[in-house]
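Morning!

This is the sequence you dropped in the shared folder:
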Amino acid sequence: MVAPDDSPDPGDVKGILHPGEQARHRTLNRLPVGPALAEFADWYWVVRWDLRGRSAYRAEVLSFPCVNLTFERSTLRTGGFVNGVCTTKYVRELSDEGETFGIRFSPGGFGAFTGADVAALRDDSAPLTQLLPAAAGLAERVLAEPSDDRRRVLVESFFAGRDRGHDPRYALVAAIVRAMSEDANLTRVDQVTDRFAIPIRTLQRLFRRYVGAGPKWVLCRFRLQDAADRLAHGDAPDLAVLAADLGYFDQAHFCREFVAEIGMSPTEYARRSR
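The structure's back. Tokens below.
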């Protein structure tokens, strides 16, 4: 069993755009991972919606640099899927009713566990059995089970039966991504290479192999997630100070990048998120 302290924080909505608005259209629950995936995944997540008789809703996410394995039932698609790192804003139209039971792998975790070419999945998804043929029938069993806890047991049992060896390169990638996420002073790739004493080309190869996107993109994505989260919760100072806090050259650079990724200005985003 996973210790209570390892349970995912239900209030952590970083990466979810307009979190208050989304909460009015769907439910979100998270479950901790078990021993089989503890080293490689962050948590299980469950999204359900029932919009019958209501207009469809566009749910938007600024995704983490992670692979998500999903078991889905909706008017869009049904089955098991492996979803690669999404380098643009992810948009999913929710209509009628549906659900997704997912596992968010840690950055680099899916590639380390399965040996899959994560870069080939960037901005794309593939049927689960295309990458993991041994998972034939797993999606049907998971979706037939009404209990989320039982679904988690089914998935954990599948992965517990797979061989995997210790991969020191994955441990290094995980440490680097963790530092990028947690240390606001890391804003440039050269700072990362200096801290971890690693050549830039080696860093780029490791990120391509395990994360599926380059280190510069990962740094930028974490900064934009922080910006959107602070704006949505009213925790941001004026934009010039926010830009400086996040390591941008100036406010104009920050605003251009925010608009390019999220589709509206920081001021408009903050207003809509109230």
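Headline: The first strand starts at residue 27 and ends at 31.

More detail when I'm at my desk.
O.
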